[in-house]
Request: fold
Amino acid sequence: MKIVILTHSDCDGICAGAIALARFPHAQVFFTKPASFVRDLDECVADKIIICDIAFNHRDKEELMHIIREKPSKMFYFDHHPLDFKVKEFLKERMVLEHNLEMSASELIYRYYQKELPDERVWIAIYGAIGDYCAETQFVKDVEKDWDIRALYFEVSTLVMGIKTPHFEHYDKKREIVRELSKGKNPSDVYGLVMEAKQAVNKEFELYEIVKNRAEKRGNIGIVSDLEGFGFRGPAALFAATVTNSVLGMSIYDRTNHLDITVRTRNYKVDLNLLLSETAAAVGGNGGGHPEAGGARIPMGKLDDFLDEVNKKLDEIKK
Ligand SMILES: [Mn+2]
Reply:
């Protein structure tokens, strides 16, 4: 039987993929992302397809449903990104769907296959959960009591930071991590990953210094524009908020025909997914993500309008 695992290439996706591979060691692992998910799924030929940690663009939903209708493969979908009601109902009828906004994809898939896996594989679920800021669930809290939490955090940091460097950017290198984790190894066992993580940490502290010098405050928002390199957008956005003492931080990149904006908040009462989907749409762009980490694509020339919209909403929330 041919089994394909289709997963996201961030920490949670790698861990969810590793749990799937631990359960089905002969499966093939491929990485995908929201922008190419529909095409990648379409090209996927297998008896069983396990999809982990992938959101899809809402404008692709009709095409996605069409592809799923035509596909003879048995499908499993483990995800925690917002899903519209109609699509969720459709997916439920045609595949095994484990969807929950409250927990990481790694936790969802681990709990699904738990009985068929060695007990120690729960570490991978914990790494994915912490890596995706989803460690507040009862399940994670319970598991954390069973292990030395400091050692687990060392491993998470090794994975989260290590995959930020160009050396581990390539999908083949990430596949190697998935394979090692699935066999019961830890991130720090992956050759070179600890060293790369250290490099990434150094770069992040350098980034903080740069953001400190360049960030500007616009109302409730700290912004930093066109930083060199594209890999540290989340921390850049967060530091922009920190150094300007703002609720929200944005890291803005000029992508020729639109602006690509990464957003983080220091106030967890703000739901970035909701805020960004509304404000981006108001200026003809699109946005969203998770409650505490999001992004937006805005047409050129609309930045001031967008910042005004976001500031207006933040003022309302503050009241
Ligand atoms: Mn995730």
Remarks:
- The mean pLDDT is 94.
